[in-house]
Specification:
The chain has one domain: Rossmann fold (3-Layer(aba) Sandwich), CATH 3.40.50.1820. About 45% of the residues lie in helices and about 15% in strands. The chain is built from 11 helices and 8 strands. A 6-stranded parallel beta sheet has the order 4-3-5-6-7-8, sandwiched between helices. It is globular, with a radius of gyration of 20 Å. It starts with a helix and ends with a helix. This is Alpha/beta hydrolase. Pfam families: Abhydrolase_1 (PF00561).
C-alpha cells in the first residue's frame, strides 16, 4: 500500500511538471504574450516582451512601414525567443502608442533610444526590418555604446538607390490590394510567382494568429509621416558607415522591389564587420519567406 502511494505521488509530480511545461510553452508564444506599456518622456509606449535573456542583453525589434505589434512574424518572434529575449514595440504615434509620428528617421531613432533607456537597458542588440533597419542605423550612429550587435534585413543605407521611390510603389500595390481584396504586403513583400504567392499566404495567415488583445491599427497620418521619413532618408547624403564597428548581419531577398537589393550589397560593403545573406527567389520579405533558415542564421550570429 505504501509503495502504491509513493508511485501515485511520483506520477502526480510528473504530471504537474509536464502540465506546467505545457502551460509555460503556451504562454511563451507571440500570439498570446501580453502587451505592456512604459512611460517614455510622458508618453506611454506599448511593447511585447518574449523569451528570456541569459546575458541581460535583449533584442530590440524595429518594425517596418505601416507596422504595429501585430505585424511581427510570430515564427520569427518565437524562434528568436528560444534563445534570447526579443522586444518589439510601437514607436511614437504607431499602434497604441500616442503622439505624433516623426517625419525623419533620425527622430524615430531618438524615440527608440529613449524607449530602450526607459526600460533600463545600457546595452542591447538591434534587429530591424526595412524602415526599422534605417532606424537601427541611426541608433548605432547616434549612440554606438548602446549597441552590441545588429541584424538588418530588407534594407539599405541613407541615399540608397530607389529608396525615395517607396511611396509610389506602396500606393500602387495598396490599390492593387484593394482591387483584389488582398493585404498590400502580398504584393509588396513577395515575388508574384508560385513560391512567392505561397509564402505570402502563409505569412499573412501567421500574422492573424493572435485573436485577442490585438494592437490598434496604424493611423493614416502616422503612415503618411513614415512615408515622408523614408523619402527623406532616400534623398539624404550617404552616411559614413565605416564608423560602425559592431558585428552586423545583413539579409534580404534577391528581388526586393521596395528597397532594391543592390542596396543590400552596398550596405554590406560599407560596414567592415558584416555578414551578408541573400535569399534566392525572394522579395522584400525574404526573411518571412525563409523564416526557418533566417532564425537559425540570426541565432548563430547572436550566439557567436
Amino acid at each position: 500500500m505504501k509503495k502504491i502511494s509513493i508511485i501515485l505521488v511520483v506520477c502526480l509530480l510528473v504530471f504537474t511538471n509536464v502540465f506546467s511545461q505545457i502551460k509555460n510553452s503556451e504562454i511563451m508564444a507571440f500570439q498570446n504574450v501580453k502587451t505592456e506599456s512604459i512611460n517614455v518622456d510622458g508618453t506611454l509606449f506599448y511593447y511585447r516582451k518574449l523569451g528570456a535573456s541569459n546575458d541581460g542583453i535583449p533584442v530590440i525589434f524595429l518594425n517596418h512601414l505601416g507596422a504595429t505589434l501585430d505585424n511581427c512574424d510570430p515564427r520569427i518572434m518565437d524562434g528568436m525567443a528560444t534563445r534570447h529575449q526579443i522586444i518589439p514595440f510601437d514607436n511614437r504615434g504607431i499602434g497604441a502608442t500616442k503622439g505624433t509620428t516623426p517625419k525623419t528617421i533620425a527622430e524615430m531613432a531618438k524615440d527608440a533610444i529613449s524607449f530602450i533607456k526607459a526600460l533600463g537597458y545600457e546595452k542591447v542588440d538591434l534587429m530591424g526590418f526595412s524602415m526599422g533597419a534605417f532606424v537601427a542605423q541611426e541608433i548605432v550612429l547616434q549612440q554606438p555604446q548602446l549597441v552590441r550587435k545588429m541584424i538588418m534585413t530588407g534594407t539599405g543605407p541613407a541615399g540608397g538607390i530607389g529608396i525615395d521611390k517607396v511611396t509610389p510603389i506602396t500606393y500602387k500595390d495598396m490599390l492593387k490590394g484593394y482591387l483584389t481584396f488582398r493585404d498590400p504586403k502580398f504584393y509588396l513583400f513577395f515575388n508574384q510567382n508560385s513560391n512567392g504567392k505561397a509564402a505570402a499566404k502563409a505569412f499573412l495567415k501567421r500574422i492573424k494568429e493572435r485573436k485577442e488583445n490585438r494592437d490598434k491599427k496604424i493611423r493614416l497620418g502616422s503612415f503618411g509621416n513614415q512615408l515622408d521619413a523614408i523619402k527623406a532618408w532616400g534623398q539624404q547624403k550617404p552616411q559614413d558607415l565605416s564608423v560602425i564597428k559592431q558585428p552586423v548581419l545583413i539579409a534580404n531577398g534577391d528581388n526586393d522591389k521596395m528597397v532594391p537589393s543592390s542596396n543590400t550589397y552596398d550596405l554590406a560593403k560599407r560596414i567592415s564587420n558584416s555578414e551578408l545573406i541573400v535569399y534566392k527567389d525572394s522579395g522584400h520579405g525574404g526573411i518571412f519567406q525563409n523564416h526557418e533558415e533566417f532564425v537559425k542564421s540570426a541565432l548563430a550570429f547572436l550566439n557567436k
